């Protein structure tokens, strides 16, 4: 038997399955890269905001130096936007970093972490990465069952992850339900409220969860620049929480976890209201384009509050993989979610109208 390295809990981790890169699909299926449509990773179809490009260009000459380890300028803008003092903010190399830092800061090997079935894959990675025990609570209608999650908390539970809206299912939890949940969670258990898709919520669904951190010292709200702000490749996210939590997060994070370009681009994007508005409008229109077609095709889908839709493409457990392959052959990359325990489903990110139409045409062919 070959030498085995590392602890058992690390060997037990299933590698994260990212969306297939365009170049790889082009090579594998003999396609022209330019003809490929990628709707697999919930990226912003408008790409990087112009304002961020300019800010990055102005930062290039500074790249010989280390980034600002405390992200002073970015925290100042975030602090103003969210009405919290800068020491309530932690920056992350993407919000994945925030999720992982939280596990390292608040959980010890052997203790338990609660999250929902069908919630973001990184919660399992972060939990297993510190040798903690996952308590995976069965989903209700493909979303979080907060009552069951509250009931599942054990004496050794130290952390709970909640995604709202959730990925990959797109479900949304009303603010009143989250607050009722927060009231039930013991004071020593940290709740990470992951709001990666917050900016896609319609105005009537928006609520300022960042203000809850004043009331709940065990709450950490996580946000990202990867989705609505169009900066996925730069890796920048942030968390808002009281200093008792952020202080520990800041000790455990890498000192230079957010690079200079990312800090500059994020500041510019935060002020770019037009870019966000354009993205939200495109997303709402694309969502209608998708669900009207799914209804016409008789396909079940989970109503989504994010920039993607989960759709059931068949009733047998090979349906997701089969339709995914048929789409890849036509140059359309979407996300199979068999690794989430949803082998009959595919997750499709909402793109530009033309990309959505190409996907729907390819889907019709794949189903025929
Ligand atoms: C995309 C996503 C994130 C964001 O990840 P980044 O590391 O910020 O790119 C976080 N949580 C969920 C649920 C997501 O879907």
Describe the 3D structure.
By secondary structure, this protein is α/β, with parallel strands linked by helices. It has 2 domains: 8-47 and 274-367, Alpha-Beta Complex (Aspartate Aminotransferase, domain 1), CATH 3.90.1150.10; 50-270, Type I PLP-dependent aspartate aminotransferase-like (Major domain) (Aspartate Aminotransferase, domain 2), CATH 3.40.640.10. 40% of the residues lie in helices and 15% in strands. The protein contains 14 helices and 13 strands. It has helices at 8-11, 22-29, 50-59, 72-82, 95-106, 121-129, 146-152, 175-184, 212-215, 243-252, 260-270, 273-297, 319-329, 353-367, and strands spanning 37-38, 89-92, 112-116, 133-137, 157-163, 190-194, 219-224, 237-240, 301-302, 308-312, 332-333, 335-336, 345-349. A hairpin with a 5-residue loop joins strand 9 and strand 10. Helix 4 packs parallel to helix 11 (260-270), helix 5 runs parallel beside helix 6 (121-129) and helix 12 (273-297) runs parallel beside helix 14 (353-367). It is globular and about 55 Å long. The N and C termini lie far apart (48 Å). The model has no long low-confidence stretch (mean pLDDT 96). The structure holds pyridoxal-5'-phosphate (PLP). Pyridoxal-5'-phosphate binds at residues 42, 94-96, 120, 163, 167, 194, 196, 224, 226-227, 232, 237. Pyridoxal-5'-phosphate binds next to helix 5.
């Amino acid at each position: 038997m070959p030498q085995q390295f590392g602890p058992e809990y690390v060997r037990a981790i299933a590698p994260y399955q990212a969306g297939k890169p365009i170049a790889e699909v082009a090579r594998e299926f003999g396609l022209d890269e330019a003809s490929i449509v990628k709707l697999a990773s919930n990226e912003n179809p408008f790409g990087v905001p112009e304002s961020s490009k300019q800010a990055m260009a102005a930062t290039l000459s500074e790249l010989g130096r280390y980034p600002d380890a405390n992200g002073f300028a970015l925290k100042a803008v975030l602090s103003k936007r969210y009405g919290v003092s800068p020491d309530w903010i932690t920056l992350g190399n993407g919000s994945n970093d925030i999720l992982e830092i939280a596990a390292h800061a608040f959980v010890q090997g052997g203790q338990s972490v609660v999250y929902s079935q069908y919630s973001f894959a990184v919660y399992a990675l972060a939990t297993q990465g510190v040798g903690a025990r996952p308590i995976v609570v069965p989903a209700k209608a493909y979303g979080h069952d907060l009552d069951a999650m509250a009931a599942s908390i054990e004496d050794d539970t130290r952390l709970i992850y909640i995604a709202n809206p959730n990925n990959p299912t797109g479900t949304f939890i009303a603010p009143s339900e989250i607050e009722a949940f927060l009231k039930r969670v013991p004071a020593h258990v940290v709740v990470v409220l992951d709001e990666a898709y917050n900016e896609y919520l319609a105005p009537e669904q928006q609520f300022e969860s960042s203000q809850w951190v004043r009331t709940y010292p065990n709450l950490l709200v996580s946000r990202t620049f990867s989705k609505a702000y169009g900066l996925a490749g730069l890796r920048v996210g942030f968390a808002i929480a009281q200093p008792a939590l952020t202080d520990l997060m800041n000790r455990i994070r890498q000192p230079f976890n957010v690079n200079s370009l990312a800090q500059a681009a994020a500041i510019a994007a935060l002020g770019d209201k037009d870019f966000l508005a354009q993205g939200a409008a495109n997303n709402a229109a694309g969502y209608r384009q998708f669900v009207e077609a799914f209804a016409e095709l008789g396909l079940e889908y989970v109503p989504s509050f994010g920039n993607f839709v989960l759709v059931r493409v068949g009733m047998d457990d090979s349906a997701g993989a089969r339709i995914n392959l048929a789409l890849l052959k036509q140059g359309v990359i979407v996300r199979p979610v068999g690794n989430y325990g949803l082998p009959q489903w595919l997750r499709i990110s909402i793109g530009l109208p033309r990309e959505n139409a190409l996907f729907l045409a390819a889907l019709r062919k794949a189903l025929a």
